[in-house]
Design a protein that fits this description.
By secondary structure, the chain is mainly alpha-helical. The strands form two sheets. It has a two-stranded antiparallel ribbon with strand order 1-2. Strands 3-4 form a two-stranded antiparallel sheet.
């Protein structure tokens, strides 16, 4: 059956199931090999401008065949030659017979290979950055909306002092703002490999230009500019330093750690029924338990984030074993680790945007959880009120201690509700402050400066980061589940 062949061999789910079309294209063979041809055209144009005997007709011929790649011919050439770059040189030369003698003139394989990788890394960041900005924007809106909604805070996943739903979201946002700075810096730090020759000495180009160092430097500058890079690395081996890959992928792995933390928090809160990710009307949570609403988007993010973090080991090890001017044991690894890191980050951000656009908050559940714990948290406030009413602190402390332990026993041993407040109200000792109890137990008196912190953080640190992405802020994500 036509098209059935694709189902009898492994397909990476990063492409077939998850990543966006633009990121999948960014690391596609079509993007890769058309970029190789562009680089050969840039090289020929610069060499011609600097005096080498290359004609307008040769360049025009190359430009007219930039995109019509015969992939079958290239595959056959590679089978014969065992060399991917030379296979594509021959394939390009076949449709450009006039230009054939000057294609790849003076260059080594890494001229097209490494420079294309750098273009793909740069373009990959350009796809990710607006997506990360949209996640930050959606989460900032959420934090602003719930800036003053008290919620039970947790340390060690044990009930602690109150915070607010918006303040907790700002903890997530703080990590994401660090990530967007990291990604932007890694993107802006990228340079072009340029034209450096087989061991990075530019010897072949110096020979082409008969010892004219200025022309060799100008060639490097011109090609770098044509490829839309501001700078090239001044020194390389045969390849650009593989620490560049470490720098890029570490920013993505760090993003993976952030997303895993955020989505784990969401999963914990979903169990408490305080917050849920969006749930479609016809979505099924469990085949056996119809009542379930599993946090499957957050689970997907955590699952993929682990892979993104794990991929960080590849460029670190690759950079550490690049012998002298280079060794080819980087090649197969980078074909996997570079695209997979960007493809994984891409689907994580798309999924997280979908989550943050539709987070559902249940204030009544949150309020119930606060009621269960707040009487214990309010004991110090009750003591202070009694002292102000003329009571003795030590006597009051002992009364509260005994009542608290009795209430705790009801909760832990009998499975009942926290009845500390009722015990206080029944005890004649506390009669002087009964009229103040509602005010003493108002959750908003336990959240400190959380709302003010949210407001200042969003205005001073979050919103300014989003300014460069305003034009791309309204894009919606169609998420396939």
């Amino acid at each position: 059956m036509e098209g059935a062949d694709e189902f009898v061999k492994y397909r990476s789910p990063l492409v077939s199931r998850y990543a966006s079309k633009e990121m999948a294209y960014n690391f596609s063979d079509r993007k890769k090999f058309t970029t190789w041809r562009k680089l050969w055209i840039y090289l020929a144009k610069a060499e011609k401008a600097l005096g080498l005997p290359i004609t307008d007709a040769q360049i025009l011929e190359m430009e007219s065949h930039e995109k019509d790649i015969d992939f079958a011919m290239a595959a056959e050439e590679e089978r014969k030659l065992r060399h991917d770059v030379m296979a594509h040189v021959h394939t390009f030369a076949h449709c450009c017979p006039t230009a054939a003698p000057i294609i790849h003139l003076g260059a080594t394989s890494c001229y097209v290979g490494d420079n294309t990788d750098l273009i793909m890394l740069r373009d990959g960041f350009d796809i990710l950055l607006p997506k990360l900005a949209r996640v930050i924007d959606r989460l900032a809106n959420f934090a602003e909306k719930y800036a003053d909604l008290p919620t039970l805070g947790f340390t060690h996943y044990q009930p602690a002092q109150l915070t607010t739903v918006g303040k907790r979201a700002c903890l997530w946002l703080q990590d994401l703002t660090m990530d967007i700075r990291n990604l932007q810096r890694a993107r802006d730090d990228l340079r072009f490999r340029g034209v450096k020759g087989t061991t990075g000495t530019q010897a072949s180009f110096l020979q082409l230009f008969q010892g004219d160092h200025d022309k060799v430097e100008e060639l490097d500058r011109m090609v770098t500019e044509m490829a839309a890079f501001k700078k090239a690395y001044l020194v390389t081996g045969q390849t650009y330093s593989r620490k560049v890959d470490v720098d890029c992928l570490s920013s993505l792995a760090s993003l993976g750690a952030t997303v895993h933390k955020i989505c784990t928090d969401i999963r914990l809160l979903a169990n408490l029924k305080e917050i849920e990710e969006p749930f479609e009307k016809e979505q099924i949570g469990s085949s056996a338990m119809p009542y379930k609403r599993n946090p499957m988007r957050a689970e997907r993010c955590c699952s993929l984030a682990r892979h993104l973090v794990a991929l960080m080991a590849d460029p670190l090890q690759t950079a550490s074993v690049q012998w002298l001017e280079r060794t080819l044991d980087d090649s197969a690894n980078r074909r996997i680790s570079l695209p997979e890191s960007f493809l994984t980050a891409d689907i994580i951000l798309s999924t997280l945007q979908n989550i943050t656009e539709g987070l559902v908050v249940y204030p009544k559940v949150i309020e119930r959880h606060i009621r269960h714990e707040l009487p214990f948290m309010a004991t110090e406030n009750i003591i202070m009120a009694m002292v102000k009413a003329g009571g003795n602190r030590q006597d009051c402390h002992e009364k509260i201690r005994v009542l608290s332990q009795e209430a705790a026993a009801v909760v832990k041993q009998e499975g009942g509700d926290n009845d500390l407040l009722a015990r206080v109200q029944r005890d004649p000792y506390f009669a002087p402050i009964l009229g103040q109890l509602d005010a003493i137990l108002d959750p908003k008196t336990f959240i400190g400066r959380a709302p003010q912190q949210v407001s200042r953080f969003l205005s001073e640190e979050v919103r300014p980061l989003l300014e460069p992405y305003k034009a791309k802020m309204d894009v919606k994500i169609e998420l396939e589940l």
